[in-house]
Amino acid sequence: MSFCVEFFKIYDKKINSGEVSFRNSGIQINDFNQLCIVTDFVMPEENLEIVCEKMNLSDEEIDILYKAAGYTRK
Predict the structure, then answer these.
(1) What pTM was estimated for this model as a whole?
(2) What is the distance between the alpha carbons of residues 74 and 53, in angstroms, rounded to a whole number?
(3) DSSP letter string, 22-45
(4) Which of 38, 33, 45 is nearest to 72 (CA)?
(5) What does the pLDDT look like over 10-68, one tens digit per residue?
(6) Res. 1: pLDDT tops 90
(7) Furthest-apart CA pair in the chain: how many Å?
(8) Dihedral of CA 66/23/37/34: which sign?
(9) Long-range pairs for 26-30: beta carbons < 8 A, 24 or more residues apart
(10) Cα distance between residue 57 and residue 40, in whole Å
């Protein structure tokens, strides 16, 4: 699946549960806009690192996003 699809599955789950809000998610507004508009957009790896930390993602969720983005997790 595309990065956008995988990202929004995780993002929506976190938002709906109240675990995270957009404000504290670490997502840059430009990245979010691109995710909404460009189906093959992948946020830069350094931005993804911040989002994973701020959203307190599990190792499994991080692996899913890194794989979908085509990045190798450090």
Answers:
(1) 0.93
(2) 13
(3) TTTS---HHHHHHHHH-TT----H
(4) 45
(5) 999 999 999 999 999 999 999 999 999 999 999 999 999 999 999 999 999 999 999 99
(6) no
(7) 29
(8) negative
(9) 26/50, 26/51, 26/53, 26/54, 26/55, 27/51
(10) 22
